[in-house]
Structure prediction request, 311 residues.
Amino acid sequence: MQKSEKIFVAGHRGLVGRALVRRLTGDGFSNVVTRDRAQLDLAEQAAVDAFFTQEKPEVVIFAAARVGGIKANNDSPVEFLLENIQIQNNVIRGAHQNGARKLLFLGSSCIYPKHAPQPIPESALLTGPLEPTNEAYAIAKIAGIKLCQAYAREYGANFISAMPTNLYGPNDNFDLVSSHVLPALLRKAHEAKKKGARELVVWGSGQPRREFLHVDDLAAACVFLLEKYDSPEIVNVGCGEDISIRELAELICDVIGFAGELAWDTTKPDGTPRKLLDVSKIHALGWRHSIPFREGIARTYEWFLKNAAQP
Ligand code: GFB
Prediction:
C-alpha cells in the first residue's frame, strides 16, 4: 500500500476500528478517512453511496459491526442479522461501484460449525451446523465473506476476508450484560477487589475453551494482509493457543489481585465448547502475533482503570 493512499476504515469507533486507525497512522499512512455515525449511517444505502461517490477510497477496511458477547447475541438475533447484513452490503457494494482497488472484510471465528475440528482450519467453513447462541451473527458474517468472494469471481475484485478469533484490548465494551467474557471478568474482578467481596460470579460451567488475541495484534495482521495477501480465500487470525474460561477467570483475578473464590452461574449458556483457530496459513504467509496474553490483559486493565472504571 502507498502511504498516501486513501484508506477508509468503516467502524473506526469500535475496538477493532480504533486499533486499525492507531496502527495505520503509526505506520505513516497519511490519508485515513473515517466518519462518525452522526455523519454517515452505514445502514443507509443512499448515504453510503453518496459517501463513496464523493470520497472514492482506494482501500476499504470493513470493521463496522453490531457486536456483543454471548448474551447479547442470544437475546437479539434480529438486530445482529439485519444490521450486520445491511451495513456490510452497503459498504462492500459502494466500494466496488466506486473503484476501490482493495477491501478487507473482517469476519469472526463464530462462522465455523459448533463442532468443527480443533484447531479450526479455514476449510471448515459451511461444513456443519452453527452454534445457536450466535447463529444470526455468524450467518451475517458468512454472507459478507460470500459477497466478497462473489465480487472477486464475477468482477475480479481484490476483496479479501480475515477471520479473527475472540479479541480484547483498549476501547472494549465493559458492560456486564452485553460484553464479551474477558472485559466482563476484568471489570467483575476489579469491582470485587474494590468492595472486598468474597466471590466473583462467572457465567456457565467454566469448561468452554476460547482463544484470545490482543486487538493491536489484529490491526498489525490486517495491515500485513492488505500488503501481502490477494486471494478471496478466507484467512484465520489468532494466536494459536486457547484457555478454559475457568483458567481465564483465575488469570484475570491474579493480574488484578482479587484473591476471593469463583462462583458459577450455570443458568447462563456455555456456547461453543471450543474455538481455537488453525493459524498455520497466516504463519506460512509470514505473520505471527506478538503480545503475550498476560501482558495484554495487564495493558487492558491499565486502560480500563484510566478510562472506564467507576470512580
Ligand atoms: O465472550 P463470550 O460472551 O462469547 O463468552 P463467545 C465466552 C464464554 O465465557 C461463554 C463465558 O462460555 C460464557 O458463558 N462467560 C463467563 C462469560 N463469564 C462471563 C461473563 O461475565 N460475560 C460473558 N460475556 N461471558 C461470542 C459470540 O461468543 O464471541 C459472538 O456470541 C462473537 O458472535 C464473539 O463471535 C467473538 O465466545 O461464546
